[in-house]
Amino acid sequence: MDVTGAVVTCLGVPDVHTVIVDGTVVKRDGQLTALDLRELRHATRRILSVTS
């Protein structure tokens, strides 16, 4: 039985506290640090308005 795989498979987004990618913290205390979600949503709406 692969216990590690089973645990990872059962976890969800709220269970992830910190994520480090290539030495950079991209999620700390459950919050994304590398993205401005407000700007990302705005850019997505702009793109969708042009393509639809």
From TrEMBL:
<protein>
    <submittedName>
        <fullName>Uncharacterized protein</fullName>
    </submittedName>
</protein>
<dbReference type="InterPro" id="IPR011059">
    <property type="entry name" value="Metal-dep_hydrolase_composite"/>
</dbReference>
